[in-house]
Design goal:
The structure holds two protein chains of two kinds.
Chain A lengths: L2 H6 L20 E2 L5 E5 L9 E2 L6 E2 L4 E4 L8 E2 L4 E10 L7 E9 L19 H10 L12 H10 L4 E6 L8 H8 L1 H15 L3 E7 L3 H11 L5 E6 L8 H9 L14 E5 H12 L6 E7 L7 E6 L4 H7 L9 E4 L6 E2 L13 E5 L1 H4 L12 H5 L6 H9 L3 H6 L10 H5 L6 H60 L7 H11 L1
Parallel strand pairs in A: 1-14, 9-10, 9-12, 10-11, 13-17
Antiparallel strand pairs in A: 2-8, 3-5, 4-7, 5-6, 7-8, 13-14, 15-16, 15-17
Helix pairs in contact in A: 2-3, 2-5, 4-6, 5-6, 5-8, 12-15, 15-16
Chain B lengths: L14 H23 L2 H23 L4 H6 L2 H12 L6 H16 L12 H12 L1 H4 L2 E2 L7 H8 L10 E2 L2 H10 L7 H5 L2 H4 L7 H17 L6 H20 L7 H5 L4 H8 L10 H21 L6 H18 L13
Antiparallel strand pairs in B: 1-2
Helix pairs in contact in B: 1-4, 1-12, 2-4, 2-5, 4-5, 4-6, 5-6, 6-17, 12-15, 13-15, 13-16, 16-17
The chains are: A alpha/beta, B mainly alpha.
């Protein structure tokens, strides 16, 4: 941290109204299992899982529904007991609303667990065994990125990280599921942290919690008191504190290289919710089949945090939270800064669903777009040190190279720039468009290169064949000439001899 | 339901709000100035505002742009007010109107409207008028001159003859002329001792106007409409160069305080050089921009042909702004150690 930051506070990011209370203070509720669950096969980063059940098959809660497929993937388990009704396409929890493959499960109303294999002394297990069990429980990063946790644990062990950073920042406004979890289940989280320390080989765990959550800080500090290796560190409430790069910088003073990973500075970051899922998986053998979801926004009758089985439709969650008051101006899955706007409420909750927000027009505060006045508010807000206004200018002129030159590839899409823009320029949309365009260009380039290679190979082959043909012809001609020379004495002309020879042959 | 990109919440800010706060911040300066000069200043503000809004509306219509949202953003009003505050208050009405038309039509709308102008429109107008009408642009009300509102009205609307006695140079101009006069070897100290013209620590009366501008500027800083970079660097640039000259020969060069609180220094530092559209956007770029404008303003003031140098200093720095920004890009996260 620079000298200026010591005196004037952090210079990056923004400080939006957090709107976390009163939802954060409401007691946690558990939602009853709905009649039908839609369990998406793509609810983690990486390849979709492969179904391991058949239609009509009876399953119990926690039975495996789908196997991981490929290096980066995660298993998926039955969120309740019942019958597999269908394996097919449903609308995805994504702005596009495009279909996604899912397993539809009809509940039998018993919500009966399968046999679970817990562990009373997990610290006696090999670190690799912890990772294996975490993988078997289908645990993914619950902060929103949904990276398979077991993979992260085993990678950290290989790259010999020394510090485990627990992300309890929860810097997105309106969300409080991590806050609530830390207040209600601090002991479980601390146990999960210790298991993760064991699995990664890291020697210390720093739990970063924004200072706008004093109750969570108190609960976690109390739960971590017996363990010297786990220390709770309050951090200033500032968006995007929950971003890996920012949290690592604030807690350790280390800056991840622009094209590097946390492992490069000996650090690995996990979400506090993930720690609880690890605790559940190792101690009780319970796979990840439900999660705490913040339901918030002016249009929600009873905002708060609700344990929701994975696969529950958003509309059912909203109905459990007392239903909607008036038509929401925007329905969001995730936080308001980086979450996705949903086309409708008939999409299922997935492992990465941290929040469901139904905001009214006043909360969205949409205004007409105005021209850029180069006020540089976005430059001040950018936590990465980019020039959003210059990037947008290049993208508007279709100059993607220019945009990359001023940092497009380093953009983390946190939305700080668009938040502060007095002209309401949809900067994140520009950047998302440009990143998509660049990916398309890269693919087209690869395809063009492959085509070029194949065309080159073809022309090389044709050329080679022609050359071989010519060589063959030349050899024959030479052979014939030699033969002709040998018989020159007896024949009047070489050509007639050759013809005669050919005919003889 | 409508599908939109994140973020889904926005800071309650708008261009209208930004421009409104700039106008609000100008009010203390306007109050002190009109108390010093008389209601003529308010008249000029009115002429400038009406001309600006009419010209903006007409040009927006001609360019096929929506008129009311752009008219409501308040940027034309800020330009108009800056022109009214930098032109001599007893200028004929048409001079103010010409300046505003030049700023809005040529310097702003013909370049593509709000956000597209490479030069500060108000300063373009000032530069154009001081070159085209040098005599009128140097006629400031003489000290102790008290005219009734009716008399001021007559002067502004050309109903009364513009007698030279009515108008004089600013303290800054007077100082420069006195120092340049051949044969007269009055030193700065002797000149400054003349309390009727030079007041307590800068130009009589002017020191209070500029102090009020400073107050407004601090309000803008507090409201985070501007950052500290440009004003601080501007003041530093002016202080450093004027301090250097003054320490070399205090008899020939006025002290830094005089320069800081006379002419358009404070208006320039907080309201003109901070214009976002024509200025730098990077933090380091803003420092260079402000420092350059402050230093150039002094050099033009003292060694140049014009009584005050703010306008030309800012225009020259506008010219350099894109290049400065190019070399002052902030360090990207994780790339700091890459620099050789």
């Amino acid at each position: 941290m620079g000298l200026m930051e010591k005196f004037f506070g952090l210079s990056w990011g923004i400080h939006p109204e957090d709107h976390k209370r009163p939802a954060a203070d409401a007691a946690t509720r558990t939602m009853p299992v709905p009649e039908r669950l839609y369990v998406s096969l793509s609810q983690h980063l990486g390849a979709p899982a492969r179904p391991a059940v058949l239609v009509g098959q009876k399953v119990r809660k926690g039975d495996k529904l789908a196997d991981p497929q490929g290096a980066v993937s995660a298993a998926i388990h039955a969120p309740t007991s019942g019958t597999v009704a269908a394996i097919g396409e449903i609308p995805a929890p994504h702005p596009s609303g495009l279909p996604v493959l899912a397993i539809t499960l009809d509940s039998d109303g018993k919500d009966e667990w399968t046999e679970l294999e817990g562990c009373t002394d997990p610290f006696a297990l090999e670190p690799a065994e912890i990772s294996r069990r975490v993988a078997a429980a289908g645990v993914v990063g619950l902060g929103g990125a949904t990276f398979p946790s077991a993979l992260k644990l085993s990678l950290s062990q290989k790259s010999k990280v020394s510090t485990l950073i627990m992300n309890g920042g929860e810097c997105e406004p309106y969300l409080s599921c991590d806050d609530r979890l830390m207040r209600d289940a601090a002991a479980d989280i601390v146990d999960g942290i210790r298991l993760m320390l064991h699995a990664t080989g890291a020697t210390e765990a720093l739990v970063g919690i924004e200072d706008n959550k004093p109750e969570a800080i108190a609960a976690m500090t109390e739960a971590a008191r017996p363990y010297a290796e786990v220390s709770v560190r309050p951090v200033p409430a500032r968006y995007p504190m929950g971003s890996e790069k920012q949290l690592i910088l604030v807690l350790t003073g280390k800056e991840i290289p622009a094209d590097g990973r946390p492992g490069d500075v000996g650090v690995v970051v996990h979400n506090v919710g993930t720690a609880r899922a690890v605790h559940e998986a190792i101690r009780h053998g319970r796979p990840l089949v439900s999660r705490l979801v913040t339901v918030n926004g002016a249009c929600v009758a009873q905002p708060g945090n609700i344990f929701v089985p994975v696969g529950t439709l958003v509309e059912e969650v909203l109905a459990f939270a007392g239903g909607l008051q008036g038509a929401p101006a925007r329905l969001i899955m995730g936080g308001p800064m980086m979450g996705m706007s949903l086309p409708h409420a008939r999409v299922p909750v997935v492992k990465g669903t941290s929040g469901i927000l139904a905001l009214d027009a006043a909360q969205v505060a949409e205004r007409a777009q105005e021209p850029c006045i180069r006020c540089a508010s976005c430059v001040r807000a950018c936590p990465i040190g980019l020039l959003p206004l210059e990037m947008a200018r290049h993208i508007q002129a279709s100059d993607l190279k220019g945009a990359v030159g001023v940092g497009l590839k380093d953009c983390i899409a946190c939305g700080c720039c668009a938040y502060v823009c007095p002209s309401q320029i949809p900067l994140v949309q520009y950047f998302a468009h440009a990143k998509g365009e660049m990916a398309a260009q890269d693919r087209a380039k690869l395809r063009a290169e492959a085509t070029k290679k194949m065309a080159q190979a073809r022309s090389d082959r044709l050329e080679r064949e022609a050359r071989e043909k010519a060589e063959m012809a030349a050899r024959r001609k030479a052979e014939r000439a030699a033969a002709a020379a040998a018989t020159a004495a007896t024949a009047p002309t070489p050509s007639s001899t050759a013809v005669a020879e050919g005919a003889q042959a | 339901m409508e599908i939109v990109t994140s973020p889904h919440v926005l800071k309650p800010v708008s261009i209208t709000r930004v421009m409104g706060q700039v106008c609000l911040a100008l009010l203390p300066g306007i109050a002190v100035y009109s108390w010093l000069i008389g209601p003529a200043l308010l008249l000029q503000l009115g002429i400038a505002s009406l001309t600006a809004l009419a010209a903006e509306a007409l040009l927006l219509k001609l360019r096929g742009k929506p008129v009311s949202p752009f008219l409501m953003d308040g940027s034309a009003l800020v330009t108009a007010w800056l022109i009214a505050l930098t032109f001599p208050p007893l200028s004929p009405w048409w001079l103010t109107a010409t300046g505003v038309l030049f700023a809005i039509v040529i310097a702003k709308q013909l370049y593509g409207g709000l956000g597209q102008n490479p030069f500060n429109p108000a300063m373009v107008a000032f530069a154009a008028c001081i070159v085209a009408f040098p005599a009128l642009m140097s006629q400031w009300p003489a000290q102790g001159l008290s005219l009734s509102f009716g008399q001021q009205l007559e002067v502004v609307f050309g109903l009364a003859p513009r007698i030279d006695a009515l108008t004089a140079a600013t303290p800054l101009d007077a100082m420069k002329t006195a120092l340049k006069m051949d044969g007269v070897h009055a030193s700065v100290q002797e000149l400054l001792a003349n309390q009727t013209l030079y007041g307590t620590f800068a130009g009589r009366g002017w020191e209070w106007v500029t102090s009020a501008y400073l107050l407004g500027g601090l309000f803008l800083l507090w409201r985070r409409v501007i950052t500290w970079h440009v004003p601080v660097a501007f003041v530093l640039g002016l202080l450093l160069i004027s301090g250097l000259c003054w320490s070399l020969d205090p008899a020939r060069y006025a002290d830094p305080l005089f320069h800081l609180f006379s002419g358009g220094a404070m208006l320039g530092a907080f309201f003109i050089a901070t214009d976002p559209v024509s200025g730098c956007t990077t933090p380091r770029g803003k420092l260079i921009f402000g420092f350059g404008a402050g230093a150039l303003a002094y050099l033009i003031r003292v060694f140049g042909a014009f009584p005050d140098g703010i306008a030309f200093a800012v225009l020259i720095m506008n010219l350099c702004a894109p290049l400065i920004d190019l070399f002052c890009q902030p360090a990207v996260f994780g790339k700091k150690k890459e620099a050789p």
